[in-house]
Amino acid sequence: MKRSFSIFLYAASALLLSGQLAGQSTHAAAQRPTFEQVAKDADQARAENEDEEAIRLYRQALELKPEWQEGLWYLSALLYEKERYPEARDTLRRFMALETNAGPGWALLGMSEFQCREYTRALDHLQRAMLLGMGDRKDMVQTVTTTVAELLIRFERYDDSLNLLFRMLGTGTDKTLILDPVGLAALRMPMLPSEIPADRRELVRMAGEGSFASQTPQFKDTDKTFKEMEEKYPNEPGVHFLYGVYLMDLRPDDAVRELKRELEISPSHVPARLRLAEVHIQNQEFDQALALAQEAVKLEPEYPSAHLILGEAEMAKGDSAEGIKELELARTKQPATPRVHWDLVRAYTAAGRTEDAKHEKEMIEQLSRTNSGNDTVPAEGSGDARPQ
Amino acid sequence: MPARFFLLAILLFSLPALSSSATSIDEIAKKAELAQNANQLNQAIELYRQGVRQQPSWSQGWWALGTLLYDQDRFLEAKLAFRRFVSVAPKPGPGLAFLGLCEYETRDYDQALKHFRAWADRGWSGTMELIDVSTFHFALLLTREGKFVEALYLLAGEAEKSHSGSLLIEGMGLASLRMRAVPEGYPAEQREMVWLAGKSAFYAASNPPAYPQATEYANRLLQHYSDRPNVHYYVGTLWKFQDRNEDAAKEFQKELQISPKHAPAMIESARLALDDNRVEDAATLARNACTIEPQNSEAHRVYGQVLLNEKKYEETARELEIAKRLAPDSAPIRFQLATAYRRLGRSQDAKRESEAFDLLKDKQMVIASPEEKLGKNPRLLK
Q: What ipTM, to 2 d.p.?
């Protein structure tokens, strides 16, 4: 699977235009004429689209001057274009050791690692590229962001992925490009689009379509899509949860029925439990809410939303000590979530801890400033804390 | 699993005093250390390169160079440094693990497995982080080699520590489904199947075992992949762990319908048949397993067990001696053989086997050579 080859060409020029690499070969040339000649020939071969010759010459030049950054970069880009990903990856690693702040470099390295199926490193490096920035070229940012979203799904970080994908939609990304990732995240299927089993392609597509429609005013389309999905795939994990979440504000009773059905099919489904717990809190059925939230924490102790909802249930039941303990745990795991801080403001206030409450309010203001200034990097657990 | 070992690695191998004749190496080492502390890693690398060029036997230099390169994911270069390190260092222990990791990353899998084995034989040394990462990759390579039980033993150890990473799940899935592959190298369309088996195995191996979740994922595995080889075998094993022996027997039977020459399924079926007092069925299954996989020690062991049950002691001893030759470090084989010898009145042989059993019983699944486990005692290795 090859991804957006144009990104590296842009990346190459972006890096050179930024001045980070410019002039190095000239400087080196004054000291090493042989290197200068080989480097010049390599550049010329590349300009004339003699790719194999350019690769050979760049390698030769790099033997003479192993830390020639421009050469490392162009060699990597050419290797990537030729789909020689392991070689591109190894060359880029040498390049990145010299140029640690080059966002496009991390992007190309991450994409090479993605192609080599080294997904942990790919995610790490692509996220680093997003943090450092990749200039203003939309297609490169889009490819990297989509890949990050897909990898987050593969690592079972569905909520983070969905947040990122819907943010992409908000910035004008063509929805057809992210339909499958949205469907996979919505169904909580930890795989890349290329790994979707043939007999579930339609299901994933429907889940994606329905999830998109739910973000628009055309509610009737959503209902129709989800209903159809449910009829066709009544026993597939994730289907009833997805429909239930959608129905939550429209027809709460139907939503509860769907969520319960999900728990019959997937007894360890934590987000379904948490959504049901939320309904119970709203209905002031605190014991039921507490039981569900406790089960959720037991099933997935590392899931931030489980602690959040348990904290809310404890507070609702009047146990502020336990409630604050759980909310603070949720805050540790998901510090970028306003809801956690709002809950803590209320909890601290109720407990008479005015200074702590004040601090939480400051955190909320800080978050709101950060969120308006940065909408690209998916920090772990930066979702809205609602189990999606 | 990119690991950041650098600081730990440096701590582990803080530079000792160098010999007085190596003044320039001393200077280089000092400069390199200063460069490292100032986060000038490329400069430090260059200095260490200079040092090892000047004095190729400078093991600390190779070590520092290797760890610095490893930390930058430059595995090809790090591999060369660690290769030199293990050839000159008096105690190469953790260097073997790093070498194995670099070889894994550069897809030199056979060499990586060889070096992980050497590392394990020398006592699994290193920092906790190095041990975890190396053990994990060792297990992945054991799976690739078809040593699924050993791989699962190591991976289960990681699961017990609640290391619930995506790679661990994938590793456990591959081993549970007896797929000779590494996570980077199996067909994309099998991702879901591997993940479901991995989740199930992970929950089963948790401490305490989370069987409801293990069962939930096993059922999902059956829902979509019941026609694939090894799926019923895995599920049968899971049911057996939960003492659901009847269900387990059915799953092994289904596996044999899909894969008629599945020796491990025959062995497990034979054991269940024996537990159920269906001695003839057990004998047929065990004999067939021995025919299909004559090098499978467990096949001979279970057949030996059947024969012991039938009080055919001469034949039992013969079968278990084959099993012992194939797996001299298997405690149960040595125990059963001792029993057979006792019944035959061969008290000296029985005593020897009992001694071996005593040495092995707590090391049953430890991945080490038989020599290591039996204390290099030639009499017990015979």
A: 0.85
